[in-house]
Amino acid sequence: MKRYELIVVGAGPSGLSAAIEAAKRGIRTAVFDENEKPGGQLFKQIHKFFGSKEHHAKIRGFHIGEELLAEAAEAGVEVILNATVIGLYPDKEICVRQGEQILHYKADTIIVATGAAENMVTFPGWTLPGVIGAGAAQTMMNLHGIQPGKKILMLGSGNVGLVVSFQLMQAGCEVVALVDAAPRIGGYGVHAAKVARCGVPFYLKHTITKAHGEDHVTGVTISEVDERFRPIEGSEKYFDCDTICMAVGLSPMSQLLKMAGCEMVDDPKRGGQVPVIDEYGETSVSGVFAAGDVSGIEEASSAMIEGKMAGICAAEYLGYCDEEEKEELLLVQKENLESLRQGMFAPKNRGKKIEKTEEGIPISENLLERGFVSDEEIGRFPGVKTRAEIHPVIECTQNIPCNPCQDACPKGCISTGSSITNLPFTVDNSSCIGCGMCVASCSGQAIFLVDESHSDDSATVTLPYEFFPLPKQGDKGFGLGRNGEKICEAEVVSVKTSKAFDHTNLLTMRVPKEFAMKARFFSAGA
């Protein structure tokens, strides 16, 4: 039986982060993962992360995965792939299936970072080919370059449903509708807004009542639901589609911890059955830690910090650092984690209806119910101001932990003030040079450069553009409003790409001056 000082189960963001923290202190560390490639969900995540510099803000998920793998290799972490851990016992022994063999390994301490599994919902036809989870769709698109379908209906308006809907469109798919039984959109408003301005309709208070087809999906019927989530007869709506994508939450994969004898609890706010842990991830079994989604569903940024904390605690448990050093290291990580757990989407606010921002501004009801801030509402937010010269318009309307916009501006035109969750605003008397770094750096694609001084009767709007083929200078089309509807004629003035923009192209379009504060996307053609 092979022995390690530390065994980590799961080579995702939390598991790799834990292994790196332990191994760089000299601990002999092995990571087991059932997949053929390490990195977990990170390599499916082509979008830019939120947060601050400490949280990998404005860096795309797959780049973060590459960084973690490089750090793990440098630290001497042994990563064992195609290795499914099928048993974890109280004496810190694991049973692993590797090919046709069942092998046993022993460790002095264990960190379980097995992540979570996608939830599903049932309805007539839900077993038809073409009904898939959002994670499966991401795997097909972002790992294998395969379209999940041509016409897709998304069920679920949390961050996963919103982000994957946008990525489906980037892959050339048509998203015919985004549906959720809840009365309000569950994910970040900026994610919803970038989907809405591409023309995707939102159907809140609706659910799927039937998938149509004989040997594959050919269509779907949705129905409005009452306050008890029961379909309302006569409210049915039919959509042609070949794929139904479900993003209806995740459940922690905590079976190994239960097998090890850890005390467990059913906690809906953390996603289901999770281990009872202390603030740094140690379970009721001494020397067994949990990190990431297995201990409670959160974002990947939080999972990485939890992994680091578990790795530090494992180092102290094994005698590789003393109590004082551990506390100093954990204090930094705890502060980083707490900053991510602030704002409207903090764990403490789950299930609550937030009616005002931290600044006292009424939340956009249109955003919550239809996916976009209306023209009448947008002006009340601090980042939305008009100026005679070129200037940023920041359509960030919810308190989320994110501030790369203020770091990106070389002239200090943008600030979030004293807190990472404050709504960003333009600094008085600042001078925008039109470089577009703020537009490219915004993880929510919520910043635009507006120049109403372009000519007597026209203005230019510079927006983030991540679709192919790229429009060309001189192309004519339409400016789309925040709701995705055509509102004016538009012409492409320029399309800028740069390594510094990290694959976010800056498209500048000319629109009639009266639409400068309304046109937010470009559509080519008639």
UniProtKB/TrEMBL annotation:
Pfam family of the protein (one): Pyr_redox_2
MF terms (GO), sorted A to Z: oxidoreductase activity
Keyword Calcium included in the entry's annotation: no
This protein's record includes keyword Oxidoreductase: yes
Keyword annotations: Oxidoreductase
SUPFAM superfamilies: 4Fe-4S ferredoxins, FAD/NAD(P)-binding domain
Residue span(s) of domain 4Fe-4S ferredoxin-type: 386-419, 423-452
Protein name: Thioredoxin reductase
